[in-house]
Write a structure and sequence with these properties.
With 334 residues, the chain is an alpha/beta fold. Among the domains are: 2-159, no CATH class; 274-331, no CATH class. Helix content is 52%, strand content 14%. The protein contains 13 helices and 7 strands. The protein has helices at 2-11, 17-24, 82-103, 160-165, 170-181, 187-196, 198-205, 213-224, 229-240, 247-296, 301-308, 312-322, 328-331, and strands at residues 34-41, 58-64, 67-78, 111-118, 129-132, 146-149, 151-154. The chain has a 5-stranded mixed sheet, sandwiched between helices. A two-stranded antiparallel sheet has the order 5-6. Helix 3 links the parallel strand 3 (67-78) and strand 4 (111-118). Helix 1 (2-11) runs antiparallel to helix 5 and helix 8 (213-224) crosses helix 10. The longest helix is centred in the C-terminal third of the chain and has 50 residues, at 247-296. It is elongated, with a radius of gyration of 31 Å.
């Protein structure tokens, strides 16, 4: 989930996505025909209800030069679920075609380009050419199936140096590096990676172009690794320098504040629960004191103190014994 969010945030950026797709599809016959300036996140794209939990599925669409048809890019992020990834991607593509046919009957079928971004630790080895039958209900069952050639961007097959050397925007390269070389790594490995990327991180997080970048990377590290927060903050300060007041130091401050606020919220909740329990216990104690005095007269101070310090369960047990007890000793189980 965290990696899906990291990748989606970078690859869905309207300023970055055209550069990435043009590079990935540079040998694709459609590349020269696409009006790349029209690329945007698709609005109203349907998602198979069975796939709704896959929030990171991304759909981009663009216009074709001199053509009324649209081209739709259906993007799936894979972290090792090879079979599930291509099956989901193909099903999603078929549904996008059928959605377009339902929405604009009689119009030319849009061109769909399935894209699989693989960022696992091992290179992708699943299917990349698939033919599927139309999905029930959307178009006639007698219509021919759809054929898809999946465009694969396999960051898992590239080394760290190869990813760094790719002619892509810095944010995309960092997203790929974090997905491949940070998630699940030891604190020593994470620290070494961050220090290797210090120049890239300062450039990506030190300017006004993406003020949330540092917070995204910080959250990813702390939620996908066992890196202690104090150690992480020390590494961030080392990257920025001891006088850094930039975004990454601010992120550390935000993380501390977030932890403090969460702690306060938990404390308030626990305090409210304890307060309610104490109030309930006091109410039951007052009722029991009234009943006991009615039956046995004034109570010894020791028994009054005992009632005042009893739990709700203990008070309930005393209340049951009052019904049949013939003495205070029987009430208090002496």
């Amino acid at each position: 989930m965290h990696t899906d969010h990291l990748l989606r945030r970078a690859f869905a950026d309207p300023a970055l996505a055209p550069l990435w797709l043009r590079f990935l599809l540079r040998d694709h016959p459609l590349c020269a025909r696409i009006a790349w300036s029209s690329l945007r996140v698709a609005s109203g794209a349907s998602v198979d209800p069975k796939l709704r939990r896959h929030e990171a599925d991304l759909v981009l669409e663009a216009h074709l030069k001199g053509d009324v048809r649209a081209v739709i890019f259906v993007i799936e992020f894979s972290l090792g679920r090879k079979r599930a990834a291509w099956r989901q991607l193909v099903r999603y593509c078929a549904q996008e075609i059928e959605r377009a046919q339902r929405k604009q009957p009689g119009m030319p079928t849009p061109l769909v380009v399935p894209v699989l971004v693989h960022a696992g630790r091992r290179p992708f080895d699943g299917l990349l050419a698939v033919t599927t039958q139309p999905m029930g209900g959307a178009v006639g069952r007698d219509q021919a199936g759809f054929s898809f050639a999946i465009a694969l961007d396999d960051f898992a097959a590239r080394s760290e140096d190869e990813i760094k050397a790719m002619p892509l925007p810095l944010a995309l390269k960092l997203a790929a590096l974090f997905a491949k070389f940070v998630k699940g790594r030891t604190p020593d490995e994470v620290e070494a990676a961050l220090l290797r990327w210090s120049t890239m991180l300062r450039e990506a997080c030190g300017g006004p172009s993406d003020p949330e970048a540092a917070q995204v990377y910080a959250t990813y590290v702390l939620e996908t690794t066992q890196m202690p927060q104090a150690r992480f903050e020390r590494v961030l300060n080392e990257i920025l320098g001891p006088d850094g007041d930039g975004p990454m130091k601010t992120t550390a401050d935000l993380l501390r504040e977030e932890g403090r606020l969460e702690g306060e919220a938990r404390g308030e909740a626990r305090g409210e629960a304890r307060g309610e329990a104490r109030g309930e216990a006091r109410g039951r104690t007052e009722v029991l004191l009234t009943l006991l005095r009615r039956r046995f007269g004034e109570l010894p101070s020791a028994l009054v103190s005992r009632l005042a310090t009893s739990t709700i369960a203990q008070l309930d047990a005393i209340a049951l014994r009052i019904l049949d007890a013939k003495s205070l000793d029987e009430v208090f189980g002496a």
